[in-house]
Write a structure and sequence with these properties.
Blueprint (H helix, E strand, L loop, with lengths): L6 E3 H8 L3 H9 L5 E2 L9 E3 H8 L5 H11 L3 H13 L3 H12 L4 H13 L7 H13 L3 H10 L7
Antiparallel strand pairs: 1-3, 2-3
């Protein structure tokens, strides 16, 4: 018996491809994307992972595909790893999508990376205030790089 192809949500497909929901629905209607049944979730639209990756211009190995599916199901660690993977490949907008999802769940690495993206204007407009906020949040939960970044911005008071 053949196993069903791996799935990805419509929201994740939008993030990876940079296409709107309307455009993705049009691609489904034209047969370029396969819409599949998402087990146990009648509300969600699921797309064939390989179709989405092709459309996004991404080639992922089997392990990365598994991480992507975990991330799509809400796993914060997987979201962080996929976000970092996409940052390395300069898919900034998609990286920010995953990093934001993980950061809002309290993932310190994602907070620090998201702060970096805000500071550098990678995948979103440059915003020093949001950069500092995310880096400070990461430092507050013990992220070592974020702590050093904050310490560099706020040196200890001199005692003379």
């Amino acid at each position: 018996m053949n196993s069903p192809p791996p799935l990805l949500s419509l929201d994740a497909a939008m993030a990876l491809t940079g296409l709107s929901k309307r455009t993705l629905w049009r691609r489904i209607a034209e047969g370029e994307l396969r819409k599949l049944d998402a087990e146990g979730n009648k509300q969600a639209t699921a797309l064939a992972l390989d179709d989405v990756l092709r459309l996004a211009g991404l080639a992922l190995d089997a392990e990365s595909c598994e991480q992507l599916q975990l991330a799509d199901r809400g796993d914060a660690t997987a979201q962080t790893e996929i976000g970092q993977y996409l940052l390395q490949r300069q898919h900034y907008a998609a990286a920010v999508y995953w990093l934001n999802r993980a950061a809002t769940q309290g993932e310190a690495d994602a907070m620090q990376c998201l702060g970096h993206c805000h500071a550098a204007g990678q995948g979103l407009p440059r915003d020093e205030h949001l950069a500092l906020m995310w880096i400070a949040k990461a430092a507050a939960v013990g992220h070592p790089i974020a702590r050093r970044q904050i310490a560099g911005l706020c040196p200890p008071a001199r005692r003379d």
